[in-house]
Records
---
Amino acid sequence: MVNPELALGELRPLMFSVAYRMLGSVTEAEDVVQEACLRMHAGAPGVLRSPEAYAVTVTARLAIDALRSARRRRERYIGLWLPDPLAGPDQADPAWRFEMDETVSVAFLVLLEKLTPVERAVFLLREVFGYPYADVADVAGKSEAACRQALHRARQHLRDSRSRFVVPAAERDRLAGRFFAAVRDGDLAGLEAMLSDDVVFYGDGGGQAPAVREPVCGPARVARFVLGLARQARRLGIQLEPVQVNGQPGARALAPDGTIQAVLSLDISDSRVGAIYNQINPGKLSHLAARTRTNTPATPAGQVTGGRGEGRVQRR
């Protein structure tokens, strides 16, 4: 017999991975997981029969409702909206100990914003977690036929954006290292050469920090803009520390007192940097503060090399 408390403890990373992919928010995902655990504890017989299926069902249903409310708030969001980053030298929080792949990257979470809450749940449960249609239909409260239609719509929304070639991790990390070296050295030509023709820079300040209100597009404009940010960071004594951001190469910007000022993530495909995501909204960085390792030396702004964050979501 399965101990309900033990089952919940072991299932929290799975539950968080579902909720976070649904919501793109660490705080909201943690709230959903907490509520799901309370409901599961009250419905212990379901936990005993099939802990994983029950956990995913409860979590996903709560996440659908939470996303509907979040969508209304995001319509009033100031500037560009980006998801909360999962970033750190070791990502030590137990809830983050799930395998990260491209389906948790900042770029992919931004793409998922195109979907309705139900489409997003159906797509994630079927395509990412590999659940059968019967289980997906139970979560969504729809028929299997309706879920198949929802999945078809979701695939159509995402098809063009997901067609680019995925770069192997080692090549991706080498390119990231070259990118940050060019930023450090102020190498405009070298930096521009690493950017794709349709590269876009996104910034999220949420009205709480200065950030671009519209994306910066094109290799020449993006390269000049990034080097301008790097010069400003150096004047302020801000240093960059190499970290994995949602399983992808990135960096976090640390002020002289060690506080996190920004988290930068690179989307690399077709052997070029296709997008740069800069999260500087302090409300979306607060969850990282307690996880910052104060004994990790930071490197000068721009002196960042990539790391590895490979992994696949476990499928049923």
---
Amino acid sequence: MPSPSWKGLISFGLVSIPIRLYPAARPSRINLHQLHSVCKTRLRQPLYCPHCERIVDRKEVVKGYEEEDGTYVVVEPEEIKKIAPESSRVMDILSFAKQSEIDPLFFDSSYFVVAEEEGRKAYQLLLKTLEDTKRVGISKVTLHQREYTAFLRPYDHGLALHTMYFANEIREAPGYGKTDNIKLRPQEIKLAEQLVSTLSEEFHLEKYHDEFQERLKLLIEAKRKGKEVAAEPRPQRAPVIDMMAALKKSLETTGTRHKKPARAASALHRRFAHRAAS
């Protein structure tokens, strides 16, 4: 049973809902560690103090803010607790907004909101109201000594919470969004829309998987058996020069290939496994 990341109350007008937050998703990856190439011993990152010239125990670690002159303002854990905002215990819903107004770019981490036994009816009321109105609750919550603005929204018969990036955290990329002096012909737009239509289908999360992680597992298994794995051939992609010709060719070849994506992935998986075993 996973431990909750946060316990407290959702404040909905004069209604309080005792809840717990659980991480909704975590990466599932094979972790490759850094080893010493000579003896194959795992390398570690010690807490080393260059001033005292020794390894420091974790109980000696405190937090500090660095000043411009290189000195630090030391902040003790108890001092941080004293200034913790109300949102460290109560998640006030500040307002409601249409789901369509919130871009996924603003989403940070995701959590499942689970009601305590005494709050199940109020939880269900809030869930039903958000579903019927197609609204998202905007709240404040403090997690890991940081206050977040968060979105509460219906998901799979329950409430999900997404912490939000603030406006100053959304980065800029050079040249992003610039469309100067680029003109699209109607024929190009029509063919591109036809290609999108051909590739369109209902979204199913379980259809998608991490092929690299699967290949990495097979590679590790092959290495255990002392075998080598041949490199997977990669198709050469030529730069697009004639947009119309590229779109037409894509339409010609995509339909058949798109109808059997799962089989193609399975075939790739079997081919890689066969190479690892042979």
---
Amino acid sequence: MDPAEIQTAAAAFEAAAARGEYFPQAWFGRLAVDDAYRILLARLRLRGVVRMGWKVGLTARAIQEQFGVHEPVFGCLLADGFKPSGHVFRRDELIEPGFENELCIVLGRDVPAGATRNDVTAAVARIHPAFEIIEARGDLTRQLALALADNAQQKAFVLGAPIRPDALPELSEVEARMCINGVEAATGRGDAVLGHPFNSIVWLAGKLAAFGETLRAGEYIMSGSFTRQFPLNRGDRVECAFVGIGTVAVSIA
């Protein structure tokens, strides 16, 4: 698709979303993944929203198997989606919600395409234990491109207290212990995220270059989940302890 077609498609997707059609049926099976990313970026420009950073998704093997895909994807973190740990969401305001347990990495310097994991390590300003709150606004498994044009299911990101880079444990060995309503639901390690959470940023920096984007100092990057994705039901209180890093919690009323 050429730039004019991308702009036209972005306007059409925005109009469809305004009437509650997040995966426009007219586009089923018609959209290439790279064009979906371009449409997403064009949609955000049309809205004039504040982008705080990026999310990397489908990084853990458990989630790739869950959704039948074999490579990561990216989406955008918007300012109106930022929430502190302990935030209470209202179920009636969410569309088929779920969550993933992740690290949110805040950059202290730019990370260009071609950066190594060592470059990323040097660029990190701080890290937060985090949840990504997702909405299943359509069938990601059958219509991945439409899901990407719809910002890869992103709804919100919930951050716990930060930890400085000099206080970090070895991230590939960090265990995440996830509890739902006080019952342990899953555990996972940092090496489930492409071998190391910083590898998500290496991948993202290279991927964004194709779309004229660069990772900038001050941006927030959600690394990808340590475990599979879980649904979020009314009355749930979920908590994840990242050993040696900290804890994040969220509830739904």
